[in-house]
Amino acid sequence: MSSFHVDVANWRVRRIFKVRPQLCGDDDYIYAPQYMPIGPYHLDISSGEIEKEKTRSVRLLQSLSNEAGLRALMEKLEPLARKCYADNAGDMLSEQFMSMLLNDGCYLLLFFVDYVSNDNRAPTCDDDDEAPVAAVSRNTLVRDTVFLIENQIPLVVLQRLHEHVTGGTTSVVDCIAEPVQELLQKMFFISKKPRHAPPQPCSHLLHLVHYYFEPTLPPVPGKKKKTKARRHRRPTGRWRRATEYMRYGNVRFRVREFADDVASSILDVQLRRGGTVWVPRLRIDSNTWTILRNLMALEELEEKRPVTAYCLFMSHMACTAEDIELLRRAGIVDHFLSNDEQAAQGFAELCRGVVMEVDDGEKNYLRNMWHELEERCDSHAQQLMGWFRHGQNVWVAVAVLVALILLACQVIQTLNVGAGR
Predict the structure, then answer these.
(1) pLDDT value at position 127?
(2) Contact 341, 319 (CB under 8 A)
(3) pLDDT value at position 413?
(4) Is the same domain home to 291 and 416?
(5) Domain boundary pick from 149, 178, 213
(6) How far apart are CA 336 and CA 125, in angstroms?
(7) Is residue 263 located within the same domain as residue 406?
(8) Which of 267, 252, 249, 254 is nearest to 313 (CA)?
(9) Is the same domain home to 78 and 205?
(10) How far apart are the C-alpha atoms of 157 and 172, rounded to whole Å?
């Protein structure tokens, strides 16, 4: 029995929107496809070769069903699909819009499902000789078709095409979920334990990706607060740098390795008793910032914003080369960039233009951890321990320790002399 059924009449419309200019800034390339346009927003970059590839996809699915049925299906879906785009994609004529839905829908289905051999195939980010479009890397096609918020079509279109081709009521998400999971596993965003498809219909492919990013760990209970006033004594603020938490809060950073039999994602950050922050390893390559920024853009219309909360945490913690070195030695950051300075710059710019109410616990799942770490940094005892353990000048720390010991001995001797009198 399929775990996913699309009721078109009651299907929840979720916008596929263009990124606001304040968030986009000068980074248009992060949200725009490099080669393969999907949906109405980037049709200007299409080419004859791209259209031929999409036409081949349509013809293949037509051979497995019938052309008239596919066209009639697009006519039924057009009103609902238009509601998913800004201004209802009003500048596109009906025939052009329906052709776009059909061409892009058929292309995406064949990107994930081999209907001839009845097999689901995982899109890979590795370059190979079997890329669907000549001279275009598989990495580029995956980036364009899966991870860009502006480059999507409603998943209900794929569902209806899938039902038409297969002649049944099976779920297109059941076919796509496994390949998407394998893709995210190869990119080290989630653990290898298989997960069920989302219990609620997803809006589009990036929405499905977002589902697998959600944190899985329950928060570790913190210390009980004495009064309600103390619990809210200050608003949640900006994260400190990793090196500052280490020196002023005696905080240790450890990498949380994924276990094959446990569902996890890179968002499973946790502060444990004793002041150890466990953070899953983040592997940084040419697509990391693009994926995270598009997921943050998606979350701007969501009630919960876990990816944004995680990105704010990492962007503040790892904004200098010194912090990158610390986190890299701990195994938390693994980058393939030229140097630590370049990685730090990427983190520092990751959340540029991002706005979030960090004091809202529903949106910011790391809010309580911020307050626990601030308490450690406010503690004179933790400050002293952090200074001794992680101070830059070890010999100064040793000299101070020796001086304290001598002072203690002198005080004890004075007390003993006074007692003897």
Answers:
(1) 44
(2) no
(3) 76
(4) no
(5) 213
(6) 15
(7) no
(8) 267
(9) yes
(10) 10
Nearest Cα neighbor of 246 from 177, 326, 158, 339 is 326
In single-letter form, the type of residue at position 195 comes to R
Q: Where are the beta strands (DSSP E) in 257-332?
A: 270-272, 276-280, 282-284
- Looking at residue 229, what is its pLDDT? 46
386 with 248: CB under 8 angstroms? yes
What six digits make up the tokens of 296? 């943050």
Domain with 284 in it: 230-381
Q: How many other CB atoms are found less than 10 A from the CB of residue 41? A: 22
- Half-sphere CA count of 239, side-chain side, radius 13 A: 25
Domain count, the chain: 3
Predicted local distance difference test score (pLDDT) of residue 3: 44
Domain assignment of residue 225, yes or no = no
Structure tokens at 170: 């099976």
The DSSP bridge partners found for residue 279 are: 255
| CA 102 to mean position of chain CA atoms | 29
Task: Return the pLDDT at 379.
Answer: 78
- Do 129 and 173 lie in one domain? The reply is yes
41, 18 Cβ separation under 8 angstroms? yes
pTM assigned to the model: 0.86
CA distance 70 to 88: 22
Torsion sign, CA atoms 80, 83, 89, 91: positive
Q: Which of the 8 DSSP states describes residue 168?
A: S
CA atoms within 13 A on the CB side of 302: 21
- 397 and 377 fall within a common domain: no
Q: Say yes or no: 325 and 396 in one domain.
A: no
Residue 331 shares a structural domain with residue 401 = no
Strand pairing partners for 113? 120
Are 266 and 329 members of one domain?
yes
Give residue 403's identity as a one-letter amino acid code. Answer: A
pLDDT at 35: 95
The closest alpha carbon to 158, from 116, 204, 121, belongs to: 204
In a domain, 220, yes or no: no
Q: Is the dihedral of CA 137, 348, 28, 156 positive or negative?
A: positive
Structure tokens at 84: 């998913």
Domain boundary among 213, 240, 268: 213
Cβ distance 347 to 318 under 8 Å?
A: yes
In this structure, is residue 1 part of a structural domain?
A: no
**Residue 253 located in a structural domain:** yes
The segments of the chain whose pLDDT lies below 70 read: 1-13, 67, 118-136, 169, 219-233, 380, 382-404, 417-421
